[in-house]
UniProtKB/TrEMBL annotation:
Main location per the UniProt record: membrane
Origin species: Patiria miniata
Family that this chain belongs to: Belongs to the HRG family.
Superkingdom of the source species: Eukaryota
Membrane topology listed for this record: Multi-pass membrane protein
Keyword Transmembrane helix in annotation: yes
Molecular function as annotated in GO: heme binding; heme transmembrane transporter activity
Protein name (Swiss-Prot/TrEMBL): Heme transporter hrg-1
Sequence intervals crossing the membrane: 56-76, 82-101, 121-145, 157-179
Length: 195
């Protein structure tokens, strides 16, 4: 056992991947290769510019659709439904939060943003958990009340469409959680030196 515990000290003092007793260290354990390996692993987690443009574009589309649903289901009398309007607004709000996370990642101020990513992670996690019972509730209400998809207006109509916007809110809150967590993991592996 003493031979195994002294091997890292010998490997640190030698400049080649061979130890003093002529045992060969695999390339993955070589100190020269391990620092490059960490860098390559962190670089692999960095999204490409095309992926970032797609993420920003999808978030802007989510914001636009959320605001559009809010306006249509509040302003147009034939489609007035407060359930759909509120869930469309919630979906748009979480799309805004997701867009903010993407923009902060593109700006590159990783030192300040590393600690601030905890709040979007927690917020996205709990909201996506809360939307699951809401989705199930709207589906069950629509089935129990024998609703059809149309008409949408009225206090007890449009539960299927409301369930769609609850799902969209779940999607954006999950995206907020997922991207915040992945960006935070990327910042920790690339910019924080672990002793």
């Amino acid at each position: 056992m003493s031979h195994l515990s002294s091997a890292p000290d010998d490997a640190a003092t030698t400049s080649s991947p061979e130890l003093k007793d002529n045992t060969v260290v695999p390339a993955a354990l070589s100190p020269h290769f391990s620092s490059g390996s960490t860098h390559k692993q962190a670089a692999a987690m960095e999204p490409s510019p095309t992926a970032m443009r797609c993420r920003v574009g999808l978030a802007v589309t989510g914001i636009s659709l959320g605001v559009l649903v809010l306006l249509v289901f509040l302003a147009v009398a034939d489609f007035r439904n407060y359930h759909i309007a509120c869930w469309g607004l919630a979906s748009g709000i979480f799309a805004v939060f997701t867009l903010i996370v993407h923009i902060q990642h593109l700006k590159g101020n990783h030192d300040d943003w590393l600690n601030r990513l905890k709040l979007p992670i927690i917020l996205g996690f709990f909201v996506q958990l809360g939307t699951i019972p809401a989705f199930i509730t709207y589906i069950v209400l629509a089935i129990v009340q024998n609703q059809s998809v149309m008409p949408l207006n009225g206090p007890h109509h449009g539960y299927y469409v409301t369930a769609v916007w609850v799902f969209m809110t779940w999607k954006w809150s999950f995206a907020l959680f997922w991207y915040s967590k992945s960006y935070r993991r990327f910042y920790i592996t690339k910019y924080v030196s672990i002793p």
